[in-house]
Design goal:
36% helix, globular
């Protein structure tokens, strides 16, 4: 993609691309725990009041473990109300949001005393007990905690990167969204939010047949479900988006997105490329959904009788649906071999040649303040 000079957004969950292809001084890293990361203050992306609702929904995903929607709606409403109040108070940065959310319920209630959202006041209702707040308020605060921890690692003041500026710069470098195996749960909310904002901003661009933006989203299951992913695969084509989506495990993809949504997302991809699938469910899905075709089989029939006129043979062709590729064949596919299924033409197989790239930079340089004990 470098030779084509097309800006790329690369979700590099395993840090396999960045160490080999990153260009210092040209490309960008987003990883709040990395020394070389951009300082992204999502307050800078807010242009309209509805943007606040979108951000709060990106921070707090749908809670599948609870049937009661309050455990999703309440944290979103509190975060949205706080963001609005901080903007009005000229404290529009992640550090201020973390400072308030990380404090007690009484401090959050005080920060929201001028909010016009009366529902938020109901969530944080005071009671007559010694602690001064209700059991509901305590439970909502506890539920919200898991989603806001990443804020402590975001910029305390102003940022140095705005998505709109990157999109409007024709000479923009690539964006690497990176993670780390033992820090992925800490990074998950921040990376999910950043990717969601990128998709939202690109979807809002005017149609342009000359613009090109390439997305390489490998291991998308490592993040919270991206609600805007179907729009990226369909509506963003007219904005210039070219999306490569990498999925390792269909069962996990179904769990994150729901089976119907997962099937729909895969169906939005114009071409499917299937490498070896070790999991039986994933291999079966690839075989049943992606490689069913019609095969014409010749069929002969004969009739016999005592009279000469009763004896004869007829021939016909009978179409029959069969799997071009069985699940067991997909599970035994050799390394570097893949099956390609374009929607507009017949499927074919391809053998790739392995090309080794040397590591040019460290894939992850942790911030010094991550250490519990200072290095001696």
């Amino acid at each position: 993609y470098e030779s084509e000079n097309i800006p790329c957004i690369i979700l590099d969950a395993k840090n396999e691309y960045i160490s080999k292809k990153f260009r210092p001084g040209v490309d960008f890293i987003f990883n709040p725990l990395d020394c070389d990361s951009i300082q992204w203050n999502f307050f800078d992306e807010i242009k309209r009041w509805p943007d606040i609702d979108a951000i709060s929904a990106f921070i707090v995903p749908d809670n599948k473990s609870h049937s009661d929607p309050i455990w999703t709606h309440a944290p979103r409403a509190i975060i949205a109300a706080l963001i609005e109040q901080l903007i009005k108070m000229k404290h529009a940065h992640c550090g201020s949001l973390w400072s308030v959310l990380n404090s007690g319920i009484s401090t959050i209630r005080k920060a929201l005393k001028h909010s016009k959202n009366t529902t938020v006041s109901d969530y944080l209702t005071e009671t007559g007990n010694t602690e001064g707040h209700s059991k509901l308020a305590q439970d909502i605060k506890a539920s919200m905690t898991q989603y806001i921890q990443f804020l402590r690692y975001m910029p305390k003041k102003n940022g140095n990167f705005i998505i709109d500026d990157w999109l409007n710069n024709k000479d923009s470098g690539n964006i690497y969204i990176t993670s780390h195996p033992d820090l992925k749960e800490t990074l998950k909310p921040a990376l999910s939010l950043f990717l969601s904002m990128l998709i939202m901003k690109v979807n809002a661009l005017p149609n342009d047949q000359t613009r090109k933006i390439r997305w390489i989203l490998d291991e998308i299951n490592q993040l919270y479900p991206q609600k805007l992913l179907p729009d990226l695969l369909t509506q963003s084509r007219s904005k210039g988006s070219q999306v490569i989506l990498g999925i390792q495990d269909k069962a996990q993809f179904d769990e994150n997105y729901g089976k119907n949504n997962a099937d729909s997302i895969i169906g939005c991809c114009a071409t499917q490329i299937i490498f070896r699938c070790d999991g039986p469910e994933t291999a079966e899905y690839a075989s049943k959904i992606l490689s069913k075709g019609k095969i014409v089989e010749p069929e002969n029939s004969s009739s016999h009788g005592s009279s000469d006129v009763r004896e004869g043979i007829s021939k016909s062709n009978r179409p029959k649906e069969e799997f071009i590729l069985m699940a067991s064949e997909i599970q035994m596919t050799p390394d570097l071999k893949a099956y390609v299924f374009p929607k507009a033409s017949n499927p074919f197989s391809v053998d790739f040649k392995y090309k080794n790239f040397c590591d040019e930079i460290d894939s992850f340089v942790p911030k010094p303040d991550l250490n519990v004990f200072p290095c001696v």
